[in-house]
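Predict the holo structure. Ligand: benzoic acid.
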Amino acid sequence: MNWDTKLYDNHHGFVSKYGAGVIDLLAPKAGEHILDVGCGTGDLAYLIARHGAKVTGMDSSREMIAAARDKYPFIVFDVKSAENFSYAEQFDAVFSNAALHWVLDYTGAVRCIHRALKPAGRFIAEFGGKGNVSNIREALKKSLEQNGYTQVANKSVWYFPSLSEYTSLLEHNGFRVIFASHFDRETLLEDDGGIRNWLKMFGQSYLKDIGSDETEAIIKQVEEQIRNSNFKNDTWHADYVRLRIMAVKQ
Ligand code: BEZ
């Protein structure tokens, strides 16, 4: 994925806005060292640092890390993949917001997170759970198929586990889950681009090799299919479903 960090920051501010609630669950304390996995352009790492904690942010995207370093030069940011990373030191807590649904080797990620934590260290995460963006996904799949892109339509690019799947995964890998919640969060797409911008930002894995005219046609078809369900009070909404987790390293 090549991320357009300006489009991300200027039009998808809700990602960080909702992340603030996950920081409340993290309850960072002064002097702690916290790892932010999938930190994007660093806004939540910065909010955590403002609690007096030392933060290290990591993201697999070079563009995201370059933007994060530009914005917050006093925070350490590393290009590392959540699927396979290690640090010499161990952290008091690992935090992750709206990132783990991109990590298809989710077992690898959980093992790395476990290894990165001190004994009794906490893992706090929120990401897309089972059923996430199902209206958008189904409409996109149908439009891609209608336009002859059957193979692309069937690609798996996101991981949206159920609560029981993910808590079992954590338990099998040395965590005690102390809180887990699977809930709907219909999310207002505040900018004028609505679903169109959402697809351009997050649907790249499906659309990147399709010409611009055809992409336009596919996006229009998606809009038509989900207008009744996802366009309310003159505004587009994404049918987000979240999984929020707090677990402790055993
Ligand atoms: C999400 O935050 O749920 C999400 C973002 C991008 C693609 C898919 C899901």
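The chain is about 45% helix and 25% strand. The chain has a mean pLDDT of 95.
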